[in-house]
Amino acid sequence: MSVAEICSENVVTCYLDDPLLEVADLLQREHVGSVVVLNADDEPSGIVTDRDLVVYGRSFAGNLEGTTVNEVVSATVVTVTPETSVPQLTDLMRESGVRRVPVLDDGTLVGIVTMDDVLVHLADELDSDELHDLAAVVEAESPRPR
């Protein structure tokens, strides 16, 4: 199975120079835990998570109005193509220590695949009652239809 079969095509994005408070509002409005950060050429430059806002944004608490995404985003972004296999994806996620991976097709952002997507896929593949129960919890919290 390939990443194309389990990823979400609805990717919430922001830009490096967007205010941090606007990104927090975006996360809340879209009911997601992360946004893909794009540079001026609309290329993925990183990912900002709700955790980043709390852990790293906290150091900017005195000036949240003037803080931009660029000040908290990780400079490293790991990407895959739609053709990447799920085992290749999980190896990459493990090696890179990431839970969310943008999907690029010829350099264009076409989706995002998360650890939750992999879990739901594995529950189906392994036909495990325990994994199906866990996947149901994940799907119930998911902002997008599967």
From TrEMBL:
Coiled coil: none annotated. Keywords: CBS domain. PROSITE patterns: CBS. InterPro entries: CBS_dom, CBS_dom_sf, Diverse_CBS-Domain. It comes from the Archaea. Residues 7-65, 73-128 form the CBS domain. This is CBS domain-containing protein.
